[in-house]
Amino acid sequence: MRPDTPAENVDHTAEAARLERTAGLYPEDAEALLLRAAAHLELSGDRPAATALYDRLLSSAEGLESPALVRALKASNLWEYGHEAEARAIIDGIRATAPRDPAPWVIIAESLESHDELEAAEETFTEAASLFLPQGEDTDPTPATHPLLYGRHRVRRMRGLPHDAWDTLADALHTSPVPLDELHDPKRLWSLGSDNPAELVAEISRLRAELGAYREALSRPFPVAVLHWPAPELAELLSAYPSLATEYPSHEAHLTTIESSLRELSMSGTANLGIVTGTVPSYEAFAASEASSPGDATLLPQYATTLAARGRAVAWPPERGAECWCGAGAAYGQCHGAAN
């Protein structure tokens, strides 16, 4: 529903404007496009403009797929910039009409929760659970209902209430290695929002201790890896990011550079060498995670190291008689390893 890209990576105002223009061209998709545009406006800080888009949608509510969802988003947005009374009125209206879509329930319950209305949030989550997952019935929860159960579990944990059947069901549905009871531990939730430095330091220490297992898993040696782009991937990369042409003047030169670099590293005494194969989608995702542009050549060695750390490296040199790493199909000794 809402874009996840951090504000510093996207011009949310421009993106909202683009989505509004697109909605004008494709009226059959206007609801989804304008909801995304409103989300971008909220992220940009222009909440009044987001409200205007929600109102625009609601003015033609008969054609909306989910008017209750639009109203819920509007209420959540209004409360965030000081229109609490209007937001509460909309929330009460949604609860009274009991929409048969879990999403509006989740939004209004989380809005209540975010403003410390824990009892009202729990009541709202419970109303929705009763509607979609009646206790005593052997109902298989759909994925859309999972956030209801998780949110209800979280709020009840914050209120110190004992588990009931729905909480047990939430525990059963939750597949993360960290149990819901631990994730929703009120001490942890409160400490993360605390202004007390001592509480924050204590929570940081706990998180560091919990990450110990992950550090241990990542602490094993991984190869010093060189990045290899197959010919089709390199062509796609250079087409999308021409600035990288200085790094890769041709595919043949790229392959030659890989082999010569690995030989130099080996002669200098560097052990555990390897080759990782890149793909454009993977590289773009990595660049986004680094809040950088894929056209930045300094990201390339970081990308190679990340792939190696994830176990994607193939040892160099290949074993005797094995195919060459370049993918041509010839034996390494008859291909790039011929001069070894």
Could you tell me how far the N terminus lies from the C terminus, measured between alpha carbons in angstroms?
55 Å
Mean pLDDT: 83
**Class of the largest domain, according to the CATH hierarchy?**
Mainly Alpha
**Strand runs, count:** 3
- Could you say which overall geometry the principal axes of the C-alpha atoms support? elongated
Percent of sequence in beta strands = under 5%
The CATH topology of the largest domain is given as: Serine Threonine Protein Phosphatase 5, Tetratricopeptide repeat
Low-confidence blocks of residues: 213-220
Domain module count:
2
Evaluate the radius of gyration. 27 Å
Number of helices: 17
CATH architecture name of the largest domain: Alpha Horseshoe
The succession of helices and strands, N to C, reads: HHHHHHHHHHHHHEHHEHHE
Percentage of helical residues? 55-70%
Largest sheet: 3 strands, mixed
Which strand order do you get reading across the main beta sheet? 1-2-3
**Helix and strand composition category:** mainly alpha
Q: Quick gist of this model?
A:
The protein has 17 helices and three strands. With about 350 residues, the protein is mainly alpha-helical.
Explain what you see.
There is one protein chain. The protein is mainly α. The protein has 17 helices and three strands. It folds into two domains: 206 residues, Alpha Horseshoe (Serine Threonine Protein Phosphatase 5, Tetratricopeptide repeat), CATH 1.25.40; 111 residues, no CATH class. A three-stranded mixed beta sheet has the order 1-2-3, with helices on both faces. Helix 2 runs antiparallel to helix 3, helix 3 packs antiparallel against helix 4 and helix 6 runs antiparallel to helix 7. The termini are far apart. About 2% of the residues have low confidence.
